[in-house]
Design a protein that fits this description.
Elements (H helix, E strand, L loop, with lengths): L11 E4 L6 H15 L3 E6 L5 H14 L3 E7 L2 H10 L4 E5 L8 E7 L8 H14 L12 E3 L3 H9 L10 E6 L5 H14 L4 E6 L21 H9 L4 E5 L6 E4 L8 H15 L4 E4 L5 H9 L3 E4 L4 H11 L3 E3 L5 E3 L5 E2 L3 H13 L3 H11 L6 E4 L3 H12 L4 E3 L4 E4 L3 E7 L5 E8 L3 H16 L3
Parallel strand pairs: 2-3, 2-4, 3-6, 7-8, 7-9, 11-12, 11-13
Antiparallel strand pairs: 1-5, 4-5, 9-10, 13-14, 14-15, 16-20, 17-18, 18-19, 19-20
Helix pairs in contact: 1-2, 1-4, 5-6, 8-9, 8-11, 8-12, 13-14
């Protein structure tokens, strides 16, 4: 039996040539075909050096089992989601490592209608097949691989979320990080121009480049943010956008170049979507949530709590018919985009929201930051995560309202914290939020951090 550490809860990720090889990816294609029985699949890839080779191996495995492969080439993960649904395919596979180190790669996959696939809904069965090997002969009639182009239809769907004519003149700085975002953004910008949108763009690190000469595109890391913020100021932009490698996440900077934390973007997008869909449901994760809940309540919507993770968020959104779901980690999901996450729809909605309110982005988030300061996610690499969480619980659970939907959350009258163990590594993630008192927030974060460090 093969050891397959590259199979995770929701996708496949690993170091190329070490725990992710062409043979494993080829067999993954065969396993996907046998478990999902898709008939036809959509396949795409990111810009990494290994992506084209691994896509070839994946296609070989799929076609060996009689599957027809529609290859849409270099694209973003959300384009595979869209094309899978748009073309009525039985599944979609994206060769990408997103923001992982340069030597990594992986495969993200969805079922018909771009529904998520997890360990429980097919990925575990695929792993077992690949581990066992010995697939034997393939289908009596192999499938074929052909090129497909759904970008124009994808652009039309993204633009359907706004009215381009209602946008006010605006300058936007966009940083593709030399990932896959550049060509797709250019198609979107051209369509906006044809629709008469009064937007101008400054492009930074725009060309896809497998060497990632400006570093791996991961704007969630604080050290990667200054370059975008500085460019926003240099170009006197109204706001800035930066994407990760496969652009299923986008990160926003206000007109001063300041990075906007993810929970405040969730609040802004909730307000924007409720303006379009009064009384709708909004799904959010439990790490930092009081700001989102307040905004949804004030806008007449209903806030719905979900465990963290794209498959879980999408499941809750479908069950609740929610128009939008947001995670503070910059994953934003939309009902009218197959309940999937997009890195292009959010910045367009923010531009539309700014146009409707007449306010700069800094002003739109100022009240949120003042009323709901938060610590940001603090990560602890611990020798015994279970004992560490238990120690924090013993200290705090007796005095507050405890929730164990997603790790440990304890809420008090004016502050709360969320403590979650990673599914894949010995890491504990802490988030603390407070009602208006930044100094008290810091004291609580420091106190919990001190307990956790005892287990380092």
């Amino acid at each position: 039996m093969r050891q397959l550490p590259c199979f995770k809860s929701y996708d496949i990720r690993g170091t190329v040539g070490v725990d992710l090889t062409e043979a494993i990816v080829r067999d993954t294609g065969r396993a996907f075909a046998r478990v999902m029985e898709p008939g036809t699949v959509v396949m795409g890839r990111d810009i990494r050096d290994s992506s084209e080779t691994l896509a070839e191996a994946l296609a070989q495995g799929l076609t060996a089992e009689g599957v027809e492969v529609i290859d849409i080439g270099l694209c973003g993960t959300e384009e595979v989601y869209f094309a899978t649904d748009h073309l009525g395919a039985g599944g979609g596979l994206m060769v990408t490592a997103s923001h992982n180190p340069i030597g990594d790669n992986g495969v993200k996959m969805v079922g018909p209608g771009a529904t998520p696939i997890s360990r429980e809904t097919g990925l575990g069965a695929m792993r077992d097949l690949v581990a066992a090997g010995g697939f034997g002969p393939g289908a009596p009639r192999p499938g074929s691989r052909r090129a497909g182009d759904t970008r124009a239809a994808y652009v039309a769907r993204v633009l359907s979320f706004i009215d381009p004519a209602a946008l006010r003149p605006m300058t936007i700085l966009v940083n593709a990080g030399n990932g896959a975002a550049g060509p797709t953004f250019d198609a979107l910008a051209a369509a906006l121009d044809r629709a008469g949108a009064p937007l101008s763009f400054h492009r930074l690190h725009h060309a896809p480049d497998a060497r990632f000469p400006n570093g791996i595109p991961n704007p969630l890391l604080p050290e990667n943010r200054p370059v975008t913020g500085q460019a926003v100021r240099e170009h006197t932009a109204d706001f800035g956008v930066a994407w990760d490698g496969d652009f299923d996440r986008c990160f926003l900077f206000d007109e001063t170049g300041a990075f906007i934390d993810g929970e405040y973007i969730v609040g802004l997008l909730a307000a924007a979507m409720l303006a379009q869909h009064p009384g709708a449901r909004i799904v959010h994760d439990p790490r930092v949530m009081w700001n989102t809940q307040r905004i949804v309540r004030q806008a007449g919507g209903t806030a719905v709590l979900s465990r963290t993770g794209h498959a879980l968020m999408k499941q809750v959104m479908r069950a609740e018919d929610a128009v939008y779901g947001g995670e503070m980690s910059a994953h934003h999901y939309f009902r009218d985009f197959m309940y999937c996450d997009s890195g292009m729809i959010p910045w367009l909605l923010i531009a539309a929201h700014m146009s409707a309110t007449g306010q700069p982005l800094s002003a739109l988030v100022a009240e949120m930051r003042e009323r709901h300061p938060s610590s940001g996610e603090i990560n602890f690499h611990l020798a015994d995560p279970q004992a560490a969480v238990a120690a924090v619980e013993a200290r705090y659970a007796g005095g507050g309202e405890v929730d164990r939907l997603d790790g440990l959350s304890v809420a008090f009258e004016d502050w709360r914290f969320s403590l979650r163990r990673s599914n894949t590594e010995p890491v504990v993630r802490l988030n603390v939020e407070h009602l208006g008192d930044r100094e008290a927030l810091q004291r609580h974060a420091d106190a919990i951090s001190a307990i956790l460090r005892e287990f380092a």
